[in-house]
Design a protein that fits this description.
Elements lengths: L1 H7 L15 E3 L8 H9 L7 E6 L16 E7 L5 H5 L4 E2 L7 H8 L4 E6 L7 E3 L16 E5 L7 E2 L2 E3 L3 E6 L14 H11 L7 E4 L3 H8 L8 E3 L2 E2 L1 H8 L15 E3 L1 E2 L3 H7 L5 E3 L2 H4 L2 H4 L5 E6 L2 E3 L4 E2 L2 E2 L2 E2 L6 H10 L4 E5 L3 E2 L4 E2 L1 E2 L17 E4 L2 E4 L5 H10 L3 H13 L5
Helix pairs in contact: 5-6, 12-13
């Protein structure tokens, strides 16, 4: 073991020898991003031709993401973040449409998957590194694609299917920097009102998926008196820690991996990362398992909670664009929407404030804004929730959907929305 450690412990520049012209480099999302290794690739970008870096949710704004190193080095996004959103809108990088659970397959089938560069926790006494806060799409390539790791003592050691043995890597470097932390979102009274409608519909013993942002956090705050809840979610946040500490989450009613908190990546505060460290109750699993609607559907009482920016009277949810311009991507919203519908007693909730621009624009519309991308389709939507109530759309006709959505729109827009619905033939 010590011989392997000595031969595989490298300096950052050594990674350059493992990357060749035309290669496709896979980088995990969020804190799985190896900051120093990417710094090195940028520094020596002119050594390469046609190298593409594939990543969801980049953490750090970089020149190569903005296209400044083309044709040497370029960025291919699968989900836009604050680090890549402006770059995409400026034409600096590409964005590949996808459902999150399909990303490993897309990478296998449409790229060379030449090498994975990933952040990891230090090696244990058995020779295993952990991908820590993630498994996502990177874990799907363990043992199948060469890995080069950036080992950080601040990365929590987690369990599941994100373990990489030293024999499976080309090399590693040692770094020491703090992990990125997500800022606690501000929860408004509107968020709390919406959260109360959702929470009262969640039964004890349900399995929960909640997305990122103020709304899911608010809902979690309403679940303090629930019992025997399970977690099967793409994203682990600080709210999960609170529910575990309160005894709300036990996982005893889960059908898959009972007793385990299942996720594919985590983004939160140091409190979350400390909770995950050496915690065998937490399993980080590849996204092609966690987000597969067929796996999600195995959970009785599966509850999916996500947010959107705009809904039309058909029930189509535009969750990745704002005012017709790209903001993020599909992520796992559609994965869990479908999985929850397939599940016995499953429920899906898509939440949004009824208005935007300080109440000047209704987010419930007869038709989506031109340029909007549909994330959750009219056939997969279940419940739409605003501060004015819950519209249950599953199995409803278009006219019934229109009436239900009118009832939860902001009162000052209802008359105009009803007029427009009749004009488009959605009401009679």
């Amino acid at each position: 073991m010590s011989i392997q450690m000595e031969t595989k412990c490298k300096v950052p520049e050594d990674v350059l020898g493992y990357i060749h012209d035309g290669d496709d480099v896979i980088v995990p999302l969020a804190n799985g991003e190896p900051v120093v290794l990417l710094d090195t690739l940028e520094k020596y970008a002119d050594r390469f031709q046609g190298v593409r870096i594939h990543q969801m949710h980049a953490l750090k704004e970089r020149d190569y993401i903005y296209g400044k190193y083309r044709p040497h080095l370029s960025h291919v996004a699968y989900f836009l973040s604050g680090a890549s959103r402006k770059a995409f809108l400026a034409g600096g990088c590409d964005l590949v449409p996808n459902h999150f659970h399909e990303v490993p397959r897309l990478l296998r089938e449409t790229t060379k998957t030449s090498i994975v560069l990933a952040a990891a926790s230090p090696m244990d006494e058995h020779g295993y590194f952990s991908l820590g806060t993630g498994a996502d799409y990177a874990a799907s390539f363990i043992g199948k694609v060469p890995f080069f790791l950036e080992v950080n003592p601040n990365m929590p050691r987690t369990f599941g299917e994100n373990q990489v043995h030293i024999s499976q890597i080309l090399g590693y470097i040692e770094v020491d920097y703090p992990l990125a932390e997500a800022r606690e979102p501000e929860i408004t009274e509107t968020d709390r009102k919406i959260a109360s409608y959702v929470a009262e519909r969640i039964p004890n013993g349900a399995t929960l998926q909640a997305g990122i942002g103020a709304m899911p956090n608010a809902i979690i705050n309403f679940l303090g008196d629930h019992k025997d809840m399970g977690i099967h979610t793409e994203l682990l946040t600080d709210g999960v820690v609170e529910l575990v500490h309160k005894g709300v989450v036990t996982g005893t009613k889960k059908k898959t991996r009972p007793g385990k908190i299942v996720g594919t990546f985590a983004l939160g505060s140091k409190k979350l990362y400390d909770f995950m460290n050496n915690n065998t109750a937490v399993e980080m699993l590849p996204v092609e398992y966690v987000n597969d609607p067929r796996i999600i559907a195995r959970e009785d009482n599966m509850i999916s909670i996500n947010a959107t920016t705009e809904v039309d009277f058909l029930g189509q949810c535009a969750s990745e664009t704002i005012a017709g311009r790209y903001y993020s991507s599909s992520g796992g919203q559609a994965d869990f929407a479908r999985g929850a519908l397939f599940a016995k007693n499953g429920q899906g909730f898509i939440c949004l404030h009824s208005t935007t621009k300080n109440g000047a624009i209704s987010r419930i519309r007869p038709q989506l804004t031109i340029g909007s991308a549909v994330t959750t389709s009219k056939n997969d939507v279940d419940h739409i929730v605003t501060e004015y109530g819950v519209a249950s759309l599953r199995g409803k006709s278009i006219a019934e959907r229109t009436k239900a959505l009118l009832a939860i729109s902001h009162p000052k827009f209802r008359e105009q929305l009803e007029f427009e619905a009749k004009k488009f033939g959605l009401l009679y």
